[in-house]
Specification:
Chain lengths: 450, 45
Amino acid sequence: MIHTYKLNGYFIALDVCSGAVHILDEITYDVLNLLDKNMSENCPEAVIDALKQYSEEDIKSAYEEIYSLYKDGLLFSEDGYEPFAEMMGPAPIKSMCLNIAHDCNLRCGYCFASQGDFGHGRKLMTFETGKKAIDFLLENSGTRHNLELDFFGGEPLMNFEVVKQIVEYARSKEKEYNKNFRFTITTNGLLLNDSNIEYINKEMSNVVLSLDGRKEINDKLRFRADKTGCYDSIVPKYQKLVETRGDKDYYVRGTFTKYNLDFAEDVKHFHDLGFVHTSIEPVVLDENIEYSLTEDDLPRIFEEYERLAEYIIDLKKRGEPFNFFHFMIDLDQGPCAIKRLRGCSCGNEYVCITPDEDIYPCHQFVGDENFKMGNLSDGKIDMNMKTVFSKANIYSKESCKNCWARFYCSGGCNANNYQFNKDIHVPTNLTCELERKRVECAIMIKAALS
Amino acid sequence: MKHIKTINKENLKETVKKGGCGECQASCQSACKTSCTVANQKCEK
């Protein structure tokens, strides 16, 4: 399978199953689009007849190069990965989201967590629960060496003393269990201060800082209970954190909605504020809400991703460091093919723990009783549910099987799939269209900088 | 080649041989928490 497209003046061909990316000239692009996987050594007459605008000699020369890549397995290569997906089953748990606070000091309009309490009342996780969660992870992680723990909420800084206690406890177990904990924290920034910034920069391998971009955009949907926006309070704190972050990872991460379909301006604003590592995500909401995204918005969003891609190319050509999460693709040393078959692996390698000690497949499923996998009190989890999640892969999802982007997105977000289609195996078209566009832009950026 | 420039060196098929160690990050943990892009994760090998 191949995917060809034109973008920003580039003619690009992606060989889906080998991952090969080719930049073509126009004639080769036109020739390739008339071919399929049944190639022979000589250029078919039908191709020559169909492309009267080019000379026969030029067409044959382009065909020769295409055929050479075809023989090398870099065009129309076969998908041989399905047997690996069939062998997949329950795996050790190595990644955990700790909902350290089911409470929040913001009331963001689009919050998927019901303004922080996940619909089940405001609660903070105790150290005892956090300790049990660490023990559960240690016991269920098998031989996996790297364990990830994300402090999430609600707002985790509302319970920061417990965060510190949990970190200390986990660190104390690393040697004994031969594990390496990587802590991350996702915060809205309101409670950041010199002391917790120093701690975060010392202990957290990644920190996600929520900000939607320009002040008027951010404050429209990210506000306190009294409706005051948070931009002015958090931006100086983020800048301070980033200044002293060293080479550790961080992301300034926003959400865009119908209110800011010109979201490239918000990413530019991140750059103007001095942030290098950025992400902005499409809001996930019921389409009846006035600022949710719908398929009618797609042409405008595509245009905006293209504008953003051009902006990033320009920055990079000037030698300025800048990363946009969804345009980061490592064409040479990215994840292996096996990793790409089932994405985040929620409910299998990745789980979420609540202050009530309940275990869910991920933070997005929290609050839906149908997806409660177990409880830390006995440490048992529903193996049937774990097996179902472990087998959710690009071949068990009908619309992913033949999608050219399947090895980049790996089947989409199971929680979003369930939210919109009541089936973790059925992705939503809107999400898929956005993902495909982002991958096209990401590859085009590589072409432009190659 | 005159008409085609291939910009990556690694063949995804080769990665199957050494792949599947399970040590790399869960994609959702890195920055997004809402939508997936797996291809930007780092290989741990």
